[in-house]
Each structure stands twice: as C-alpha cells, then as structure tokens.
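Hypothesis: this fold can be encoded by more than one sequence.
Test: take the structure tokens below, design a sequence, compare later.
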C-alpha cells in the first residue's frame, strides 16, 4: 500500500516530510515533486533500494539515474570537481539543471549503470529540498512515470499511474517548468548539452562559455549511446499517435484522414487552417514556457479521449528546443 501525502509547497508539513525522509533513508521509495517533473526517489547509496526504482518504472537497467542533493557543496562528496567549476555551477543551482561529472567510488554502480560518470542535480523545489535534507543521503531519482510514458507533472496523474508501485507519494501544486532538467556533460573539453531543458543553451553560454549542442538534440541523428544512454529509448509517448506538423498552410489533411477524433495543439494564428473542420484544439501559448508546463499533462489528457494528437512544430529557440526534443521523440510521424 502506498502512503499518499499532499503537501502545500508554501506551507511545508514537517512531520510528513520527516517521515518520508526517514523512509527514504531506510530503503523505501518515495515519489516527490520537483520544479521540473515528479521524481521517483530512493537512497542513492543503497543498491537494494535503487533496484526498486527500476522495477517500479519498468526502466532498462542500462539507463543511469540522477543523484539529487540539497546542497551544492555536497557535489564534492560524490564527484571530482574543482573550485572554479563549482563556482560556475553555483550560479545556476539550485534549479532545473543536471551536471554529469566523474564519479567518486562511493556512488554505487547501479546508479550510474556502470559508468565512470554520475549525473547530479540540486533541485530548487522546497519539498524536494526538505525531503533530501531529512533523508540525509543523496536521492537517486528518475522521472516518476512508467518508462516510455510522458513524465508526470500533475498530482492526479501521479496517483493514477504510480499508486501501489512505491511506498510513498508526495503530491503538491503544479511545477514551475513541467519539462525535465537540462543535462550537461562537464567531463569533456567543451561543455556538451545532453538533454535540452528549462536552462537554455544561451544561458549556459553565459556561464560556461562554449557549449556543444550535438545533432541528436534536434533529432537529426540517432543518439550516440555512449554519451547519452537515455536518448535511445522511445520516450514521452502517449498510446495514441502523435503527429508533428511543420506547416499548417500546406495540405496535411491527407495524413490525418484516418483519424475519427483528433485533437490539435496549435498556435492561435494558425487556427484558421482547422477551424471549419470542427476539430477539438488547444492553443499553444506564444510564451512557450506556458505551453511547456502543461505539455505532458495535455498529452496524458487527450490520450484518453481522442484518437490522435496533432501538434504544431515550434521554433527551436529557448525552451522551444526542449519542447521539440520531447515532441520529436513522442511523434510517430513528422510532416
Ligand atoms: O528534471 C529532471 O531531471 C527529473 C527530476 C525528477 O529531477 N529527472 C529526470 O530523470 O528526468 P530521468 O532519469 O528521467 O532522466 C535522466 C537523464 C536520462 O536521459 C539519463 O540517461 C541521463 O539523464 N543520465 C543519467 N546519468 C547519466 C550519466 N552518467 N551520463 C550521461 N547521461 C546520464
Ligand atoms: Mg525520464
């Protein structure tokens, strides 16, 4: 039986967070909110506990996990890092960004899927921070969804998908970003972007100088398994087909004619191309951050009620890069 706590992030319930923190330390699994998506956590130093994460998600064991810490200085305990790099990291943490570094011996192989590197994130969400502090150990946590599904960003979706798969679920209000953290590799000569997210390449450039953005970020090539293990799996996918449309002014109707009840996610200025057909739709906000925060919740919602999700391709700019990265993986067809 899963114990479910709902906690207001502006008014923390310390008794509940102490209980969940202690449970984590003692080998239990806890789903918790972060500013990006919900995480499924276990004691990052306890191999038996970490095995439960892979089982609860149905995650392939060669896909490594992120270690979540509450304090930037603690990075030194788990990875090799010099002061200069640590100072740069301090400029963007806590927050929605994950750093790949050379791991120290103390990090179990099961966390890193036998790699020499470990991914580390210091979340900004008050519940995540308090929980990690209470646990007193680093928390290994992937996104809380069943492997291959869109990440979880809404409390009702978390309970629906994960109830009875973990020991505790902590739900709270909606996240700030709704897309997973930016992942960067700091072990190479240049900083390499492994997963685009809320912290944009432009922002990273300000802090780290040169940033390498591999082609697979834009879906142009298959991911190089050696550097980005998580990228090779189909991801973020609803059951129903997702179709990405580059240009609604061109004829796209032939590609969707077999669907009886599609829904469109579309920019307001392009509504004119579908309006007369009586299709259901969601407007994509001009401010992509507003769309990002609800994207996974919308995919889950329409997966239940419609037979296809037709989405307008967005510009690969700012958080648009992260949105498009997820949508290209979710898409069964790009037209
Ligand atoms: O926002 C987030 O990052 C959320 C919250 C819960 O913190 N977590 C998350 O975890 O999205 P997950 O496991 O779904 O995605 C982690 C990504 C995967 O693509 C994984 O392959 C990659 O980070 N990763 C983990 N360790 C790595 C490593 N040592 N080297 C390269 N990539 C790594
Ligand atoms: Mg994930």
């Amino acid at each position: 039986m899963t114990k479910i706590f709902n906690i207001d992030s502006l008014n923390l319930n310390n008794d509940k967070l102490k209980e969940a923190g202690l449970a984590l330390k003692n080998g239990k699994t806890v789903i918790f909110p972060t500013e990006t998506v919900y995480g499924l956590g276990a004691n990052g130093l306890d191999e038996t506990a970490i095995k439960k994460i892979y089982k609860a998600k149905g995650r392939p064991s060669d896909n490594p996990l992120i270690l979540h810490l509450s304090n930037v200085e603690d990075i030194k305990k788990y990875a090799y890092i010099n002061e200069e790099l640590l100072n740069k990291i301090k400029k963007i943490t806590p927050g929605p960004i994950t750093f790949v570094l050379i791991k120290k011996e103390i990090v179990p192989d099961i966390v890193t899927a036998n790699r020499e590197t470990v991914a580390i994130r210091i979340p900004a969400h008050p519940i995540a921070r308090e929980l990690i502090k209470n646990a007193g150990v680093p928390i290994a946590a992937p996104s809380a969804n069943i492997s291959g599904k869109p990440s979880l960003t809404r409390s009702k979706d978390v309970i629906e998908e994960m109830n009875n798969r973990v020991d505790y679920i902590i739900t709270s209000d909606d996240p700030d970003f709704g897309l997973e953290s930016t992942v960067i590799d700091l072990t190479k000569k240049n900083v390499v972007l492994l997963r685009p997210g809320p912290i944009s390449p432009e922002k990273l450039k300000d802090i780290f100088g040169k940033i390498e953005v591999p082609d697979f970020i834009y879906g142009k090539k298959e991911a190089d398994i050696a550097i980005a293990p998580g990228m090779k799996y189909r991801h973020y996918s609803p059951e129903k087909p997702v179709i990405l449309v580059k240009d609604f002014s061109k004829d796209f109707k032939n590609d969707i004619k077999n669907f009886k009840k599609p829904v469109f996610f579309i920019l307001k200025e392009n509504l004119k191309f579908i309006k007369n057909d009586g299709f259901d739709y969601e407007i994509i906000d001009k401010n992509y951050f507003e769309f990002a925060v609800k994207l996974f919740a919308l995919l889950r919602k329409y997966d239940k009620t419609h037979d296809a999700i037709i989405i307008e391709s967005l510009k690969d700019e700012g958080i648009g890069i992260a949105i498009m990265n997820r949508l290209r993986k979710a898409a069964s067809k790009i037209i």
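The chain has two domains: 3-218, 242-334. The pocket of magnesium ion (ligand 2) is lined by residues 142-143, 151 (CB under 6 Å).
Hypothesis status: open.
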